[in-house]
Every structure is written in structure tokens, then in C-alpha cells.
Amino acid sequence: MEEFENKFAQIASLLGDKSRSVMLWCLLDGRAYTALELSVCANISAQSASNHLKKLIQAHILQVEKQGRHRYYRYATSEVAQVIESMAGLVSMNDAYTRAKKPELNGITYARTCYDHLAGEIGVKITDALLDKGMIEIVERTYKVTSIGKSWFRDVGINIDDVISQKRSFAHPCLDWSERRHHLAGALGASFLTMMLQNDWIRRKKDSREILITGKGKLELKTRLNMDI
């Protein structure tokens, strides 16, 4: 037990450093970054960023990939990214925040990426629609795709059997820090985000985690899930 407590304290101290926490927040857009790019995000020197990143790699929070002359840093696993995103749920968005008041609506709270899946108001609404239409159901804190759901996902270009075969969580609820409700995460959430991007239902906003809903996307969501965007 003492060993576990010591390891927990070590992880907590790593995440508690301001510079490291800023870099981890930047990585939540799902892309890999160099030490120089992350140093700019955290407003520290490249050497200092490298030292911080080395500690995060040793703790298996991040991983590094070499490509040519560059080294790119990303989360070690999607589960780590989920923990970092969930921590935002502890943050009061402004001084007037109460449990009964959501953060002020803006682009990032309306639609954004949460590592490799869709989050924000739109992410929660899509998840609610999938549940209401019987495409997915909640079973023991995970999402299961129903028989009609398999057909629905196939129609939008997602093969559920292929998604299940991935070596990661298939589909689970992820607590949305701005909505305080759950959106769809895991391999299915990632596949859904990829499908929406590839079919131009949504587009990424440059240099931001914010997601823009296209006219085509609004029409598809209305037709397929009866969602008014």
C-alpha cells in the first residue's frame, strides 16, 4: 500500500507542475508536438521543456516518436489523455461558477476534440441521440452497440467489428468538463470523429481544439439522428 501511495504522489507531483500541465493540455488536441512547440505553449525554454518531457516519458504519461531530425511527443495511451481531460472537470471556469451554472458558451465548449473523439455540447448531444434512438446502450459503465446500431454505424461507414478488434477500450462514457455530462469515448468515439472529418460533417479550426460543424454535417445529423444544430 505504501508503495502505491508513493507512486501516486509521484504522478500527482508531475501533473501539478504548471509548465508540464500546460504542455499536457496542449497535447489534448490529439496531435504530436516537438519539444520546441511545447516550450512555446508553456512559455519556457526548449531545454526546460525537454527536461519536463523526459520526466513525463519516464512516468509513462507520454511517448516519443522519432521522424527524421525531429522527436514528436504524444500521450502514451488514450487512457492517459482521458485522465487529463477529466481533471478539467475540477476546475471552476470563472469566479461566478456554481454547480447549477455551466461555463459560458463559446466555440471550445460548443464543439471540440477531446484527444481523439468529439466533446463539448455537440459531443454530448450526439451521444444522447445515439442512446435515445437505441443505437447504443449503457451496460456496466460502458457503451454497447445494439443490433440496429450496427446497421446505423455501417450506413455511415463504420464497421463495428473492425472497431471492436482494436486493442483499446471499445466505447465508454467520458465526463465532459464543460457540460458535466458524458460523451462517447474509446475506439468507437475515435472512429466516429474520423468519419465525420473524412465526410466533411465537421472541420478542425486551425491551431485550436475547436471543431466547426459544416452545413453538410448539420443536414446529416438532422437526417440520421433528428438533431437540430
Automatic annotation (TrEMBL):
Which domain of life does this protein belong to?
Answer: Bacteria
Name the CDD domains on file.
Answer: HTH_ARSR (cd00090)
One biological process term from GO is: response to cadmium ion
Give GO terms: molecular function aspect only: cadmium ion sensor activity; DNA binding; DNA-binding transcription factor activity; lead ion binding
- Cite the InterPro entries for this sequence: ArsR-like_HTH, HTH_ArsR_DNA-bd_dom, HTH_Metal-responsive_Reg, WH-like_DNA-bd_sf, WH_DNA-bd_sf
Q: What sequence ranges are listed for the domain HTH arsR-type?
A: 1-95
Read off the SUPFAM superfamilies from this record: Winged helix' DNA-binding domain (SSF46785)
Q: What is the protein's name according to its record?
A: HTH arsR-type domain-containing protein
Q: Which organism is it from?
A: Aquimarina atlantica
